[in-house]
């Protein structure tokens, strides 16, 4: 039965026997696949929902801060003119 020589030792057309695969690519298939999905893949709906919640929180805090500053400036202006 005929078997092919290992891919790393095949002869190139120019006659050299340099490896066709880099050392990094010569790992077994199961080890290479493990690193492909190593990153966290989050649903776009979760990202949009978190962005919407964060936007609402920032807007509410900004409105409360503006109202507090307005009250403070009114109180400061009234004591400045009364004194």
Q: Your description of this structure?
A:
The chain has 83 residues and is mostly helical. It contains two helices and no strands. It has helices at residues 29-36, 44-82.
Count of distinct strands:
0
- Characterize the largest beta sheet: strand count, sense, and whether it forms a barrel: none
The best one-word shape is rod-shaped
Portion in strands: under 5%
Total domain modules: 1
Number of helices: 2
Mean pLDDT figure: 75
Helix content: 55-70%
Alpha carbon gap, first and last residue:
108 Å
Low-confidence runs: none
Write the layout of secondary structure elements.
Elements: H1 29-36, H2 44-82
Features:
mainly alpha, 57% helix, 83 residues
How is this structure best summarized?
With 83 residues, the protein is mainly α. It has helices spanning 29-36, 44-82.
């Amino acid at each position: 039965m005929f078997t092919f020589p290992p891919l790393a030792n095949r002869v190139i057309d120019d006659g050299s026997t340099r490896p066709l695969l880099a050392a990094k690519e010569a790992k077994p298939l199961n080890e290479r696949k493990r690193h492909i999905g190593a990153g966290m893949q989050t649903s776009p709906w979760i990202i949009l929902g978190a962005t919407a919640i964060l936007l609402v929180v920032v807007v509410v805090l900004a409105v409360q801060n503006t109202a507090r500053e307005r009250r403070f400036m009114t109180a400061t202006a009234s004591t400045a003119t009364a004194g």
